[in-house]
Amino acid sequence: MLDERKAEVLRVLVEEYISSGEPVSSRAILECSKLDVSPATIRNDLSALDREGLAIQPHTSAGRVPTSRGYRYYVDHLTPKRLRAATRERIQGFFSTVHQELGRLLKSTSELVADISQYPAIVTGPGMAGEHVHGVSLVPLGGHAVLMVLVSDAGRVGKEVLTLEHLVEVAVVEEAERVLGGMLHGRLLAGAVGLRDEVPSDLSTAIREVVEAGIDMVGLSEDAARDVYVGGTSQMAALWEDLSTVHRVLGMLEREALVMGIMSSAPPGTVIQIGDELPMDESVDLAMISTPYQVGGVAAGRIGVLGPMRMDYSRTISIVEEVSDNLADSLGS
Fold first, then answer.
1. How many domains does the chain have?
2. What are the pLDDT digits (tens) for 181-202?
3. DSSP code of 136?
4. Would the pTM count as exceeding 0.85?
């Protein structure tokens, strides 16, 4: 935990670096802060931040830049900015006038967030958790594999492959399909994963294995049916000077399952992930801010923004939270 003065030095360092993209000198920190101390005191504080791993000096004659740990300390003690009235009115106006089917609305929302924040934006769809099971089909794929097809009452389809311990016989699959269909039909998908205790006790071992594997896969089908909408990728070249970083981030966005995994595994509330906190194959200059949106009082998906670690966290947090509230109101109306 930093003392009050060092925390202020770090705050100014981060915000000046976010603004300029250039290493920040002790003189600049002294001029931009409200600290009534000498330049030597600022230099000593910067040296202390170096030792704490919160800042680094790229070159001997250069100023400092924050590390990923420095950004983490900064955001953990951050109070988000209040958006300008014009920005709030633009967001409210968008949702009060737009009338589109869900997929197009979420795609438009990702483009709105990207345009306002000036960072690439991601919106995930609500999945099937709030829908009921209409039908279940099991298709033997040969060997130990069975394809489970789940259809919701909204007409959406989830598909998962069950990998079983024993070789699969057609008669076993047919009976397992009958049992699963009876257990799952009309059930809310979000509550179906707790049905293992209701599997009939008189089933053969082979049939029980298929039925229980199908129940376990219901939760995966909820997420598998989620769509991912990305907006603002054309802005990426302006955000990162290193083109290899642009290519790595684009590669991540093309791996829909990875993006969905990051978004769906985030804890409730607004989450900020910085640098190595993101599950990338290698270290990359990347941060993500995401927050959930609700439908009927239940978290349905997430709105996220990607950017370099020197992104404007305060404003971006306020943007995703304002859009989340307005999207929830639009979907709930």
1. 3
2. 999 898 877 667 678 888 998 9
3. E
4. no
